[in-house]
Amino acid sequence: MTHPNFRVDVYQNEYLHQGADEVNAIVTVTSGGEAVSSGSTSASAAEVIIVDCSGSMDYPRGKMIAARQATAAAIDALRDGVAFAVIAGTDQARLVYPQQGGLVPADARTRAAAKSAVNGLKAGGGTAIGRWLSLANQLFLGHPNSIKHAILLTDGRNEHETPAALANTLADCEGKFVCDCRGVGTDWEVDELRRVSTALLGTVDIVADPSGLTEDFRKMTDAAMSKAVADVVLRLWTPQGATVKFVKLVAPEVLDLTSRRMTKSQQVGDYPTGSWGQESRDYHVCVGVHPAGVGDVMLAGRVSLVLTGAAGDEVLGQGLVKATWTDDMVLSTRINPEVAHYTGQAELAGAIQEGLEARKAGDLDTATAKLGRAVALATESGNQDTAELLSKVVDIDDPVTGTVRLKAKVSDVDAMTLDTRSTKTSRVRKSSS
Amino acid sequence: MTDESVVDSGAAANACPGCGAETAAGDRFCENCGTDLLLVAGGTPDGAVVPSPRGCVVCGAEIDADGFCTRCGVAQPAVRDRVELDLTGAAGVSDRGLRHHRNEDAMAIRVTADPAGSGRPEHIVAVVCDGVSTSDRPDDASKAAADAAADVLLAAVRAKADLAAATADAVAAAQTAVVDLAGTDGARNAPACTYVSVVVAGDTATVGWVGDSRAYWLGEPESCCLTVDDSWAQRMVASGALTDAEAFADPRSHALIAWLGADAGMVQPHVTTVPLTGPGAVLVCSDGLWNYVPDAEQLADIALPKAGDAPFAVAVELTALAIDRGGHDNVTVVVVPFNPRSGDL
To answer: Residue B329: closest CA among chain A residues belongs to which residue?
Structure first.
């Protein structure tokens, strides 16, 4: 079986001043080439669509209708042969289709039957997201070699199970399937849904207007169908005595993977990356090392993208993170643009989340300072999308210094949209000089 | 390290250095493989690491395919860290020194033997280039420049061309070779290096340079530096603004005002032709040596009279001196002995 080529590029300033003990690098992983684009039908896939059917989905009435239409659109976007199911979520999880249990392969007949079942969905009951995910996890069990993806739609808080129960379920599901989460309306909890998407290596977004759901579901399904390889880990080798300070996904969004390390040996750890289509992601790797002498060169990290499976590990691509100690200040003080950019983007995400948190808590000084810092970072890095979202929450007097005033009135939609999308990063601008 | 054209002692005295086939006296080229029997060439090799069978030089663990230790991560020594050339007619040593992580100097030597079969060298070409460490791939730049220039100069001496013009051509070829390394992604830190070449043909030395690598004449009637640095310090001294001591004490003293590279603008080589009377030696070196021993008379005191028949020993000694005094930079030293040919002129 052939797998896509993974290209690994490392961006860093490998020159460290005497005594420096920290090595930073941005590792750009690009999967692509013909194996992905032509081989998309060869990878078997499984898809579970989870629709919130709690009572609140009827308020406003359009929400349930939009959810049914969106689910139908997602079903239509399934490739022939993809094993799928639809779950209705309340304080329980109910398999809507197929009624006999398990997943069924998509074809004209099963798609029609599934859409007909979805059409009959009615709102009524509570919200227990963990139970929904547990059922999805069970359904996926019979498909160990498929690329497994779930879509989870909710409109409210996880009120009918404890946070601990959800956390337990997430721990069970980690690494089993990828889940993209969508919150419709403004009565759901950004933090809560972000915990789900983070644990399951998916995306989270707000769909404020239910009429946008159909397009969004179709896009998510298309993206899931384009994945060609699952169960890829980022394997990091570090020299003896070194410490991994962090490993973060930094583009397309910020996701800290440090605590997700699966230790292979004292010097080798694996970090999950989920499934890959034809795409490019950036990771920020930070390694603490024992400083060597001026003129010494050390390999501070070897980053490999490894396909793990029953048949053994297969290295899809790799890159080297180096450290060279020098007393040449011109070399050691050079700022690597990629590292600087993503350090800023990670700070940006943190500043937005802390700023919104402070605003909610009524600490307006902290909120103003944090959101002002966010405006400055977004401006400096050319993150237009985030800058625009920020401008709906604060009045900007000076975007460069980040001088802002909190808006007196901010809609829930605007605050939640900013919060949800705070982790989205812009990529490094090509230097024009 | 010895030059690869040195013949195994077990082989026939007139064996081809390229393939070992027997050659007839007076042959210009090997009948078997086409090797030029009158040329001895050597230079800086590619920078590959050849792992020691005993494992990592620090901890003894296995070495990976990229030349790093699989346990402690330490980069293993590269072939290029120390290059020694002991050729008939010229000798050179290029060393990483103590404070740089790699050797960004490069040298190239070409010696043609007297076609009459006397065994004496007829023409000697020596090029030394010093990569600018703040540029990208300075090690590649210096090697590309030295190799390209040496080949142009070799072709010129064989064609009995005008050597001053050939030296300008060699600088142009070196510049092209370095510019070609820059690629298409703009000239943010385009690869760059200095350049100095010497061609000894008959009783003249033709010297060309760009930057602050130097050539010296050591010997009769008077030892002297043959080049004038393209450096900030030299410009200050030349304009009368500062004395030698003041200029070299300034932190900007080593800032180059001319170099080879895509961002170098119009490269204008300095070329000078010097009559040699001798006996003595031409010394070609990077600033890794002359930073410690700038004075021609001092250099001559160390090099003479040994340089005449043991140029390699002199190159080794001068390199060791620079390293003993701090080894702050890469050190490259090429020694070309010159003995006037009394009688056959």
So the answer is: A295
Q: Provide the pLDDT for residue A310.
A: 75
Q: Which chain B residue has the Cα nearest residue A240?
A: B72
User: Maximum distance among all alpha carbons in chain A?
Assistant: 72
User: Do residues A20 and A261 touch, judged by C-beta distance below 8 A?
Assistant: no
What is the complex's ipTM, to 2 decimals? 0.80
Burial class of residue B159, CB neighbours in 10 A (0-12, 13-18, 19+): exposed
| Contact indicator for A272, A257 with CB cutoff of 8 Å | yes
Query: Does A292 touch chain B if contact means CB atoms closer than 8 Å?
Result: yes
pLDDT digits (tens, 9 = 90+) for A237-290: 999 999 999 999 999 999 999 999 999 999 999 999 999 988 999 999 999 999
Q: Would you tell me which residues 125-144 of chain B have a C-beta closer than 8 angstroms to some C-beta of chain A? A: 133-134
CB A423 within 8 A of CB A198: no
- Which structure tokens are listed for A23? 């090595």
Asked if A330 and B134 come within 8 Å (Cβ–Cβ), the reply is yes
User: Closest Cα of chain B to A338: distance in Å?
Assistant: 15
Measured between CA atoms, how close is B255 to chain A, in angstroms? 12
Query: What is this structure's pTM?
Result: 0.82
| B101, B102, B104, B328, best to mutate vs chain A, most A CBs in 10 Å | B101
Give the Cβ contact number of residue B77 at 10 Å.
16
Give the closest of B68, B99, B133 to A331, CB-based.
B133
Alpha-carbon distance A262 to B193, whole Å?
A: 46
Q: Do A328 and B186 touch (CB under 8 A)?
A: no
Give every CB contact of residue A432 below 8 A, 6+ residues apart in sequence.
none
Supply the pLDDT for residue A3.
63
User: Dihedrals φ, ψ of A286, to 5°?
Assistant: -130, 120
- pLDDT digit string (tens) for B335-345? 999 988 754 44
Residue type, A150: A
Q: pLDDT tens digits for B239-293?
A: 888 888 888 888 888 889 999 999 888 999 999 999 998 799 999 999 999 999 9
Hey, are the CB atoms on A433 and B186 less than 8 Å from each other? yes
Nearest-CB residue to A239 (from B72, B96, B188): B72
Single out the residue of B80, B149, B103, B105 nearest to residue B286, CA to CA.
B105
Please give the helix or strand (H or E) that residue A87 lies within, else none: strand A83-89
Give the per-residue pLDDT at B184.
64
Find the residue in A nearest to B69 (Cα). A299
* B195-201 β-sheet, strand order: B39-43, B105-113, B121-130, B195-201, B204-210, B270-275
Contact check, Cβ <8 Å, A296/B101: yes
Q: For A125-171, how does the pLDDT look when each residue is reduced to its tens digit (9 = 90+)?
A: 999 999 999 999 999 998 988 999 999 999 999 999 999 999 999 99
**Helices A213-225/A62-76 angle, 10° precision:** 30
Q: What is the pLDDT of residue A2?
A: 55
Distant-in-sequence, close-in-space partners of B214: CB < 8 Å, separation ≥ 6: B196, B225, B226, B227, B229, B284, B285, B287, B290
> B68 CB near a chain A CB, below 8 Å?
yes
